[in-house]
Amino acid sequence: MEIINALGRRKSAVARVYVQEGKGQITINGRALDVYFPSSILQFIVKQPLAKLDAEAKYDIKVNLDGGGFKGQAEALRLAIARALVKINPEDKAALKAEGFMTRDAREVERKKPGQPKARKHFQFSKR
Q1: Structural domain tally of the chain?
Q2: pLDDT tens digits, one per residue of 60-69
Q3: 114 within domain boundaries
Q4: Fewer CB within a 10 Å sphere, N or C end of the chain?
């Protein structure tokens, strides 16, 4: 089987994934999954699409992760893995879509406006 690549984004995080048949190793920026994401919750988020399809030990995954925080990176990686699995087997798309793994979370940080301390917050109004 050749290498399948896919892209996942969340907030400002970008995950580029390269999937090939193997023993289930996930390497992120040259480090193992449990070293890169010490939190078991984030490891669970990353492995969700693989667990849904019972494919945790089928594929080796190499990842380039860039930008964002750890939560955004984990969710970007989840989307990228789900997209790669659909490229490998299109029949899995319905199962992954039902769980919400195929949907790109489009929420981004709203920009700060001039004359305000933050995006929506305003300085206190003084009548006199």
Answers
A1: 1
A2: 999 999 999 9
A3: no
A4: C
